[in-house]
Amino acid sequence: MNPSENQTAIFPKGEKGPAEYFTGTVWIKVLVPHSNTFNCQIAHVQFEPKARTNWHTHPGGQILIVTNGKGYYQEKDKPVQIISNGDVVTISPDVLHWHGAIPDSEFSHIAVNTNSQKGIAVWLDKVTDEEYSSLKSG
Amino acid sequence: MNPSENQTAIFPKGEKGPAEYFTGTVWIKVLVPHSNTFNCQIAHVQFEPKARTNWHTHPGGQILIVTNGKGYYQEKDKPVQIISNGDVVTISPDVLHWHGAIPDSEFSHIAVNTNSQKGIAVWLDKVTDEEYSSLKSG
Asked: What is the value of pTM for the model shown?
């Protein structure tokens, strides 16, 4: 089975994440665009195995709610953590971090981009293969 | 099978919704409490068949993301709508509404309570059986 053909997914795949901000294949479906009424933007993001974001920050913060599979989450100068289905990660404004799928599993999360009137994301360097592989289990 | 024993649920059930605000059995798991960092509060809510909220409003608005089953959503003076897995509902501040499970299905959603520094919810009247049954299909 092609891991991108996940028939149990509850959201459409959406658009492919641009190669300048992501490594590997990532699908982004915006569920709620930013508005001044709600002051947040919500997207569903699906990572194929090994796919990940660049290092980045959120000026208004971000909350991840894992909906499928297993992924990595790392903040700068902290160890990589494994997160899975049902886990919730709160990322304070301006904290440098990345997230993505582990090597042998898809990974999906809802991203609630809070205080989005301040902007959604500031994109920085690629996550190197060495950084990606710094946790050996999974 | 007891519909409350849904082994595929990705979030714990949490606490029982109080009878003053809900009709029937509703489980509420707060995933992210309100904070001044994120200005939103996020909960996962599971309704057993026929269970529903009272009529209520949100001072800062609310976004529902349906994660399981089928439910009803109604705004005051508008028809009842059926919503299901993957649907997203945006509810502007101070709009009077209710939501709940259809008669023969469980229903779960994530509730993103936006601008929660303004408060989470203002609870009003019970949804009567007549109001609940105003849509005959489902």
From this structure: 0.92
